[in-house]
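ok here's the first one, seq then struct tokens
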Amino acid sequence: MSEAEEQRWVTVMLDKLAAQESKRLLGDAELVERAEQLSEQYFQGRARPASVRWVTNQNTRWGSCTPAEGSIRLSHRLQGMPEYVVDYVLVHELAHLLVPGHGPRFWRLLEAYPRTERARGYLEGVVAADRLPHLPAAREE
């Protein structure tokens, strides 16, 4: 196994362990409860998900929604991020239960969440940081 491949597998396994640990702190039941609160607060309770859960197989998206099923999935990578960021992703996915696409009507719904721009900026920063070359850890001498 090459060094690069080994490093990739170490990263994958550490991500899985972190996701398992974080799930103990904020489980799927708490996500459902939070989604219900946010729906009530921003959409007068009209967005009613059938399920909300953490997943470990979303590495390029922060969240996803299947409106026909009413299911919302959040990437485990959000765990440990500020609450307003997780709330933004939940509000974004809840809005998809009301408007499936990303057209003007969808974005008008998101205007109700006051920290939309801040949360989007935070997530853009995380993506940008992930694209930076990772330098080896400094060695103590």
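and now the second one, same deal
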Amino acid sequence: MKYGISLPPFGDHADPRYLADVAREAEAAGWDAFFIWDHVLFDMGFRPIADPWVALAAIAMNTQKIKIGTMVTPVARRRPWQLARETVSVDRLSNGRMIFGVGLGVPAQLEYGFFGEDQDPKIHGQKLDEGLAVMDGLWSGEPFSYSGDHYKLDEVRFLPRAIQSPRIPVWVGGTLNKRKPLERAARWDGYCPLKDGGMVTPDEWKVAMDSVNQLRNSDAPFDWVQGGETPGDNPAKAAEMVKPYEEIGVTWWIEGIYHWRYGLKGNDPITPEISEAMNERIRQGPPKI
């Protein structure tokens, strides 16, 4: 099992320089990946938020080995050809360390509605699937054209290619065991199930794994990605929490380093004390078994 961090680039962490320093500390502490959220707005507090691609560029330049990426990017909110450029640029800048997490984007009002865009999740799902098909074609570096319901491209060729081959890994986030996210995940490189009201249990994982494996038509490596929170000041308890997931074949544990984990409520401002508590959990290192 590998261990990553998922961190909202809000408040103090909205400063790319600050975020890059935190990522360097994460690498030194033994984490295997550093993921940031991709939002333009998140709540009615309208708190500071970093652009993920500027932030990831800074992180790439300030680290050496740790995987980096988004957790997750709402592809429907962006132009897929622009995302193709941005992801390849980060992959090359990081010497092949980019992982691309994708999803629909929530809350829909904040991600889409404030900007006059359609809030229908079915449309978002269609654009996500078409957008990934477009990105995959552009990532190939070969002549590529596309005609779908939402996107149309005349034949073009995007260079340079990413460093990673056959492509930048794509992890799909979605509600646990919903058919569409399961089908989508089976076409790509990883599955990050989300469950309202708590963590996905090992037994629920077994069902999800069976469902995805039945839908896959490839024997390429595939990642099973579990999110959770472990106590950094109690390594034995942390390892005990993670062990059942490793035993069933989950490949990544993603530690949620969230502001509300440390006392933030609603639209309250993010204090320096909350930011430091987040950073301290990162410095405590992963819940390795």
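notes on #2: The longest helix spans residues 121-139. DSSP finds nine helices and ten strands in the chain.
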